[in-house]
Design brief:
3 domains; histone deacetylase binding; flat; Beta-clip-like; three-stranded antiparallel beta sheet; single chain; Serine Threonine Protein Phosphatase 5, Tetratricopeptide repeat; zinc-finger; binds zinc ion; 9% strand; SET-MYND_domain_protein
Length: 654
């Protein structure tokens, strides 16, 4: 089981119990305190009285466990066998892949266990025709303290993968080398194994391994959206839009010139993102690409990376600090929203060279800036990747209202940052026990900062969902430039994703001077007004006054997904409607291609041309039928559905 060492033998479970009991105490503190500052002081005073608080200081969590890794590998073996027996039930192999990946995440670095988990995943990847990924895993199996009696097995697998790949590349030298190595290490096997592998070796050398094809990965290079003219001050937005401020709308984005449907308005990578649950095993936590031969963090079992480069970059940018905090908050069962807050604060601390004093200085300056059109801008630029931009998203009008959970978790994250990482502050002494910290102004400042970041995340982070048959949540991300758009239930831009990049494209003609709206909750076609308004208020704390809400537009379609019956009704209407029908078919076939791209031999249909055609149809319908006509709105819906759906490939392995 888990190895947990503490001086006072306070177990994690006891701590969890204590945390729950403390909930009541905090509620009392909140009730009797007249201000936020007094509230925090009261809570800290009470926490300091409890011995469990200071025990966190001495707690160490060892995330890697040979036993747990071995159990997960066994689970993987079970699914692998199931898959071999029933090769057409594709879920078996996918489950085996996931269990082996978890096993790798949990194995101690440079252990036999890690080597054998990589070895098993290499086998399944080879089976799934992911030969290059299999080769990566074989190399990891060999490099991580591989027992000599296992090496023949891996070199033989290596030769097999290379041999299949030799149909497209010339690698005879590498294949021969792998066979030589396989032969060389056979001496370390026991008699039975030696006989078995001598036979296998002979068979494989004489087998031509006909070209069985290679697993088809989604190719992101097929369509790379680009911003034609980048905005000088808002680097992730197009120059066709600008930033305005008004009391009613706050900061918002408007069209500086007439915008045609199909025009790309924004392309942005998130400041921070956290993949939900097991999605962490499928996507690189740093660059967001789907991965198969992933690498774990050496210290925690939470984050996985697509490459050494991403692992190093992540460690430099945030993970070296974050890792020490995440290990605890994972054990304490904090929800995903605290993972993303931890990511943001760690990134910000690294940006400030690990000095809380520098960070405080920088953020105080943003706070002092009274002009909302300048707040968060550094050298007149609202960067995607700077904490100043994130911090400026804090609405000044929102009254701070924290429940006991936010209080205890923000104190916990701050305390972990102070005691488990190398952050420095001139105001905090080296003796960092809770009793000393409870009155420390820098510690209290850090707690309040974490609380502000929780508020910012609650109202600005987006939940990105994969589409297809069963939509699944992919990740929670926070974007800076894109956070400047206001919401509408009948938006003028639609979003699509490429890895973690969010792309906004105009789906309606937007006249010069008009505000540009994005939809970050529900569309008027998908949900009744009262449901939309409830959700918007619950998550984003505002009452929507968009045109669909004000005029109470009906939900005409069952959902916003394109409905064939309805467009058939308009068939033969006139030339535009005919073209509309054709465009709808083209859009649908692109989406179908994306959902099933592995089963298509031919190339992706021409996306750019289809988008241009759709843009043309929408502009004409707008002109001929009017902006409130069902024809026009249906076309816009279809366009919106297309952007949501077209670039979300099927994740599962089969
Ligand atoms: Zn990566
Ligand atoms: Zn880690
Ligand atoms: Zn609305």
């Amino acid at each position: 089981m888990e190895q947990i060492t503490t001086d006072k033998e306070t177990s994690i479970n006891e701590f969890k119990k204590w945390k729950e009991n403390f909930d009541e105490c905090i509620k009392e503190c909140i009730k009797k305190s007249s201000s936020h500052d007094i509230e925090i002081n009261e809570i800290l005073k009470n926490l300091a009285l409890n011995p469990a608080t200071s025990s966190i200081n001495k707690m160490t969590i060892v995330s890697k466990s040979k036993t747990i890794s071995a159990e997960l590998k066994m689970k993987g073996d079970y699914y692998f066998c199931g898959g071999l027996r029933k090769p057409h039930e594709s879920d078996y192999f996918d489950s085996a892949f996931m269990e082996y990946t978890k096993s790798i995440a949990n194995a101690p670095p440079m252990s036999h266990q890690l080597s054998s988990s990589y070895g098993k995943r290499a086998e399944i990847l080879c089976r799934l025709k992911l030969y290059t990924d299999s080769l990566n895993d074989i190399q990891q199996a060999l490099d991580n303290n591989c027992p000599d009696n296992q090496k023949t097995k891996y070199y033989l697998l290596k030769a097999k993968c290379l041999k299949v790949l030799s149909h497209s590349i010339n690698n005879d030298h590498d294949i021969n080398r792998a066979y030589q190595d396989a032969k060389y290490w056979i001496k370390n096997m026991n008699n039975n194994m030696r006989k078995k592998y001598e036979k296998l070796l002979f068979e494989q050398i004489n087998d031509n391994l006909i070209d069985a094809g290679i697993f088809k990965k989604w190719n992101y290079d097929k369509f790379i959206p680009i911003l034609n003219n980048r905005h000088v001050n808002l680097p992730s937005l197009s120059d066709s839009v600008g930033l305005k401020y008004s009391r009613r709308f706050g900061r918002h984005i408007f069209a500086k010139k007439n915008i045609k449907p199909g025009e790309i308005i924004a392309i942005e990578r998130p400041y921070a993102k956290i993949y939900y649950g097991d999605m962490k095993l499928r996507f690189c936590c740093h660059c967001g690409e789907q991965m198969w031969s992933s690498l774990p963090c050496d210290s925690c079992n939470i984050m996985m990376f697509c490459s050494n480069k991403c692992r190093d970059d992540a460690n430099d940018d945030y993970h070296a600090i974050e890792c020490q905090v995440l290990k605890f908050i994972q054990k304490f069962n904090l929800q995903d929203e605290y993972f993303i807050v931890t990511r943001i604060i760690c990134k910000a601390i690294v940006e400030a060279d690990c000095s809380l004093d520098t960070l405080k200085n920088d953020l105080d300056k943003i706070h002092a800036e009274k002009n909302p059109l300048k707040r968060g801008f550094v050298n007149e630029i609202f960067e995607s990747n700077k904490i100043s931009s994130i911090y400026s998203l804090l609405g000044h009008s929102v009254k701070d209202n924290f429940n006991s959970k936010i209080h205890i978790n923000s104190i916990l994250i701050s305390y972990l940052l102070i005691t488990k990482t190398n952050v420095s502050s001139s105001g905090i002494l080296n003796d960092r026990n809770f009793d000393n910290l409870k009155d420390n102004y820098m510690f209290i400042w850090l707690i309040k900062l974490v609380q502000k970041l929780i508020l910012i995340c609650n109202t600005n982070s987006l939940s990105l969902v994969g589409f297809g048959d069963k939509p699944e949540g992919l990740f929670q991300g926070i974007y800076t430039n894109i956070s400047l758009f206001n919401h509408s239930c009948c938006p003028t831009v639609a979003s699509s994703t490429q890895c973690d990049k969010l792309i906004l494209t105009a789906i309606q003609p937007i006249a010069k001077g008009q505000q540009v709206y994005y939809n970050y909750a529900q569309h008027y076609r998908a949900n009744e007004k009262k449901d939309r308004q409830l959700e918007l208020f619950k998550y984003y704390k505002f009452i929507c006054k968009c045109k669909a809400c004000e005029k109470n537009w009906p939900v005409e379609l069952e959902n916003s997904k394109f409905n064939k019956k309805i467009y058939c009704f308009f068939f033969n209407y006139d030339r535009i409607i005919k073209k509309f029908t054709n465009v709808c078919n083209d859009l649908s076939s692109i989406v179908m291609y994306c959902e099933n791209f592995k089963n298509y031999d031919d190339e992706l249909p021409d996306i750019l041309k289809t988008i241009n055609d759709a843009s043309d149809v929408i502009s004409k319908l707008y002109y001929y039928c009017g902006k409130n006509s069902s024809e026009y709105l249906l076309a816009v819906d279809t366009f919106e559905w297309f952007f949501r759906s077209w670039n979300t490939p099927n994740l599962k392995l089969s």
